[in-house]
Amino acid sequence: MIKTYYINSLSGYKPQPYVRKELRELKTRGILLTQIPVDWYALDTLEQVIERVKAGVEKALDDGHQVVLIGISAGGSLALSVFLRW
C-alpha cells in the first residue's frame, strides 16, 4: 500500500482554498493523504523538523508501505530535504 503524506506551507495547518481543491481531487482518485503538520513559526530547528517527518515515514516503511511526500511551498522544500537526507 502507498502512504501519501502532505506537508503544509507557511500559511498554516489549514490549506488555502486552491490547495484544498487539489487535495479533494486526489481523494476522488483514491489517494488518501495524511497531513504531517509543521508549525513553521515554532522554535524548532530544521534538523528537528526533518527528524520528526523522517520518523513518520520510517514507521510507514517499517509497516511495509511505500511512501509519497507531497508538500506545498515550504512543505515542498521540506519534503525534498527529507528525501535527500535519507
Q: Overall pLDDT, averaged?
A: 88
Question: What's the gyration radius in Å?
Answer: 13 Å
| Helical proportion, percent range | 40-55%
- Strand content of the residues, in percent? 15-25%
Biggest sheet details: 3 strands, parallel
Number of E-type strands: 3
Please give a structural write-up.
The protein is of the alpha/beta class. The chain is built from three helices and three strands; from the N terminus they run βαβαβα. The protein has helices at 17-28, 46-62, 74-84, and strands spanning 2-7, 33-36, 66-71.
Brief description of this entry?
With 86 residues, the protein is an alpha/beta fold.
Features of the shown structure:
86 residues; alpha/beta; 3 helices; 19% strand
SSE blueprint and pairings:
Layout: E1 2-7, H1 17-28, E2 33-36, H2 46-62, E3 66-71, H3 74-84
Parallel strand pairs: 1-2, 1-3
